[in-house]
Amino acid sequence: MTSAGGDSPEGLLDEQIDYYRAVAAEYENHALPFPGGSKLSEALDAFRPTGSVLELACGPGTWTTQLLQHAADVTAVDASPEMLAIASARVGQQERVRFVSADLFGWRPDRRYDVVFFGFWLSHVPAERFASFWSLVADCLQPDGRVFFVDDGYRTADELIEGERSSTI
To answer: How much of the chain is helix, strand and coil, in % rounded to 5?
Structure first.
């Protein structure tokens, strides 16, 4: 299976953004809840993401409200304005949340955070961008900062961009 965006990482990333913008309104009907969600939620609570938290690829805000249970403030970044609107509606009028519309591969933080969190995002990072993504995460962290992420290893054939050996969905 070949990406409609071409073989370049940029084309693939553009295609991912277009996809999530298009499915934002119905995304939660198909993607959530997911198996093992309660265990992941418990693990996040045990981690206690305190202080200033950066949530990368926040999507519809599935994790944002849970992060707010521990965090002093949350900056939630996503490339889809439609997903950010859903996340904002879910969270409500929270002064402790800042939503940022940006492509994570071009975005740079305006400050450093105590915690960086991302859920089900790493599998979207093309192999060519893997090292630069982790550099971004490092640039976002305070010197003693922590990272918490969740993802899954199982994908159906139609989710894999380049066949069953694909590293990117």
So the answer is: 40, 20, 35
Q: Where are the beta strands (DSSP E) in the chain?
A: 51-56, 71-78, 97-101, 113-119, 141-150
SS3 call for 136: helix
pTM: 0.78
**CATH class in words for 9-159:** alpha beta
Side-chain-facing half-sphere of 23: CA atoms under 13 Å:
12
How far apart CA 148 and CA 141 sit, in angstroms, is 12
**pLDDT, tens digit (0-9, with 9 covering 90-100), for 41-60:** 899 999 999 999 999 999 99
* Length in residues, the chain: 169
10, 127 Cβ separation under 8 angstroms: no
- Delimit the domains of the chain by residue range: 9-159
